[in-house]
Specification:
Rossmann fold, 2 domains, seven-stranded parallel sheet, 15 helices
């Protein structure tokens, strides 16, 4: 549904009135549009340590306008504050910062940029995982990047976002995929996140259709976020298989026909659901997206056993059982990608949702626990945790709660199903095996949770 406050705040009269009253002025975010060719449409600034030179190798595939601030990379044009172009994307390599006095480089680099950013600019800081460093001072300096990046993300205006990527040893060559995503409008509703990259041997061969030749199954795909995920996977080249409950058969078949895929109607909680699913997937799977989920909200004092059991069965037990069966049978092939749809409720909790929050936290735990055991097969498993997303379900939330949900984030608005779908599509890419066992929040840097 339309966010009337954003419409008003961005009108001529509304902008003046909102500014005079000191109210928040969220802007319309730039999102990925069909036909776009490059991740960055504008100037890209690269600076900092040795990883900057690694980025310069593929930077011309991101945009034509490449600039440097400082010595790295030497191959780019120098950007001068106040004289260079407005910046659409920024990457700063902070991986070489090892002592407290070196952290001043963060202020020296970013301070001059803040008044020179375009609308919906995307910033990324690169570092090294503190837990992997033997020097306590270096570990401390790298951990400081989290506080800095999360705070600076909250200071950005006009739809700007910022992420921190910890680059593991041997993962230096995995940067193109994450930067293509986090420097582009595909990550419009993601900000203040900390991502850890590890080595991955499976590259993307065609960035225009990164999922070409891969088979993807999406549960709960008939409408809403699930439908958007299916559409985005198909856009990126995947052959999509859409699954939902029998009552949704009509919508499911119509969407599958439009996307050139096929549909499966199945109750994922049925005792023989795993056997039925394996039978209908004789050619195997490369991508598995567990999107199906339900809510049955009540405070714990009023929670019925039926409400509790139903939510845990659909949201947590079914993904556990089905994924294990697909893995054990070999239906889920080596180098597959598994994405679990969690929620910030599973991170921060939510009144009246003890059952739902438990199920979504369980999915995050499942990704963390399964990730190391699946590494030998090259399989990654991650959770995506949406915040307030504009759907038919949130449209029925009472007005006051809906407005609070929209405004309680750094970006000051709700996300769209497309935002969740873009995150899932990125995690489904072959090269995203460098990212596993983690929870990626798609929440506009919500004030809820960590």
């Amino acid at each position: 549904m339309s966010d009337r406050y954003i419409d008003f705040a961005n009108s001529s009269l509304g902008h003046r009135l909102v500014g005079a009253l000191g109210l928040p002025t969220p802007v319309r975010l730039e999102r990925w549009q069909a036909g776009r060719l490059r991740p960055v449409e504008g100037a890209l600034l690269i600076g900092g340590g040795p990883l900057a030179e690694r980025i310069s190798v593929f930077a011309n595939r991101l945009t034509d306008g490449i600039y440097r601030y400082g010595e790295q990379p030497a191959s780019a044009s120098e950007w001068i504050p106040g004289h260079g172009p407005k910046l659409k994307a920024v990457v700063f390599d902070a991986s070489a910062l090892q002592h407290t006095d070196q952290l001043k480089q963060l202020r020296e680099f970013f301070q001059p940029l803040l008044k020179n950013l375009e609308h919906s600019a995307h910033l990324v800081i690169l570092g090294r995982a503190p837990e992997n460093l033997s020097d306590p001072f270096a570990s401390s300096a790298q951990r400081a990047l989290e506080g800095f990046s999360r705070s600076l993300a909250k200071e950005l205006r006009n739809g700007g976002t910022l992420q921190l990527i910890y680059v593991g040893e041997g993962a230096e060559d995995q940067l193109e995929g994450p930067l293509r995503f986090f420097l582009s409008p595909k990550s419009a509703f993601i900000s203040g996140q900390v991502i850890r990259l590890s080595p991955c041997a499976t590259p993307v061969s065609d960035w225009t259709r990164p999922l070409a030749g891969r088979k993807a199954l999406v549960t709960g795909a008939a409408r809403g976020i699930g439908a958007s995920i299916a559409e985005t996977l198909a856009r990126d080249g995947a052959e999509v298989i859409l699954l939902d409950v029998p009552p949704a058969k009509s919508d499911l078949e119509a969407l599958a026909a439009r996307l050139g895929g096929r549909s499966i109607t199945l109750d994922i909680c049925a005792e023989d659901a795993a056997a039925q699913l394996i039978e209908q997937l004789p050619d195997g799977l490369d991508i598995l997206v567990h999107n199906a989920g339900i809510t049955r909200d009540k405070t714990l004092a009023n929670m019925t056993p039926e409400f509790w059991d139903a939510v845990l069965a659909v949201n947590l037990n079914a993904p556990q059982v089905l994924t294990k069966a697909l893995l054990d049978s070999g239906t889920l092939r080596d180098n597959a990608r598994v994405v679990l749809l969690a929620s910030i409720s599973g991170i921060a909790g939510n009144r009246g949702q003890t059952n739902y929050a438990a199920s979504k936290a369980g999915l995050i735990g499942l990704a963390q626990a399964w990730a190391p055991t699946l590494l030998p097969r090259g399989i990654s498993i991650n959770a995506v945790a949406p915040g307030f997303i504009e759907t038919q379900m949130t449209a029925h939330i009472p007005f006051g709660l809906r407005e609070a949900g929209r405004r309680m984030s750094s970006l000051g608005q709700g996300g769209l199903p497309q935002d969740v779908a873009e995150a899932v599509a990125w995690l489904a890419q072959p090269g995203s095996g460098a990212f596993t066992g983690q929870a990626l929040r798609v929440c506009g840097q919500s004030v809820l949770g960590a």
